[in-house]
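Regression report. Comparing outputs from two consecutive submissions.

Submission 1:
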Amino acid sequence: MKKFWIVCCVVSCVVLDCAFFTNVNLYGICPDMTLILSVLLAIHMGGLQSGIITGILGLIIDLILNSVIGITSIAYFTAAIAAGACYKKYYAEYVFVPMAYVLIFEILKQHLLFLVSVLMGSTVNYFSALVEYILPCAIASGLMIVPAHLISRALLLEKGRTGGIQFSKRGEL
């Protein structure tokens, strides 16, 4: 059942990132749902498994949306590996932990994309891009992780006999 929910989450994140948020956004500001998925899967499954899944998703998103292949994939993979440090930790159930990871890695990903665009010849002012796009996208992603975290806790965590929420076994999806 978990594999089914993970596949549904993966498909919905790709559709949201590639189809919905590219057309429906506020001044170009949109949350990065695949980064949110990367962090949440790392907290629930471990960093390596989620890093592989979201790294492949990053390549697919780069093929669809970006002219440079691999930058988004690297950002998702490193976010998953870093957030995997919270795997099976008691504090991972609080929404502020994944929110901090999403905020940090969204800012790092946007800076990496900005650097690549500058190296390719773009003449965008850094401070205007920071204020008008990078920070608002990070805030939008940080806000979107709240409902996503609540949904992922309901779908990906198992209830134990005592009624409390317990993490699944390490190798299990």
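Submission 2:
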Amino acid sequence: MLRAIADVLRQIGGAIATVVTLPFRALARLFGGASRSGRARGA
């Protein structure tokens, strides 16, 4: 019983972590692409 509850909580925590990190990953990709293209343009 406790193991089942722990598994559910772990899955919920994983889903929350994914939702929280997605916007930061998108921002990092945007800024990473912008800095890369900016450097290429400046060269």
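Expected: both submissions complete independently.
Actual: both completed, but the second showed a warning that disappeared on reload.
Relevant detail on submission 2: The chain has one helix and no strands.
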